[in-house]
Amino acid sequence: MSELEMLKADIKKLSAKATQAKMDLHDLSEDLPLNWNSIMAVAQRAHEAFTELEKKREALKAQDKA
Question: Could you tell me what percent of the chain has a pLDDT over 70?
């Protein structure tokens, strides 16, 4: 598997992870005030997932330009 293919596979996995994190955050918000004390942990997971996804997407853009 080429580096480009591996990068695309990573992005696909990270996209699914980020989408799940987004849904977890959404579900939590709908259930408020229940579980309000987990807001920061769930938000942190979502933030980390999207940060990682954005970095991989930028790496893919750089790879495409090369």
Answer: 100
Q: In the structure encoding, which two tokens stand for residue 54, read together?
A: 């954005």
Inter-residue contact 46 to 26 (CB < 8 Å) = no
How far apart, in whole angstroms, are the C-alpha atoms of residue 15 and residue 59? 14
Task: Report helix, strand or coil for 45.
Answer: helix
Top CATH class of 3-65 equals: mainly alpha
Tokens of 23: 């849904």
Which residue ranges make up each domain of the chain? 3-65
Res 35 pLDDT > 80: yes
pLDDT of residue 1: 80
What is the amino acid identity at position 37? N
Q: pTM of the prediction?
A: 0.88
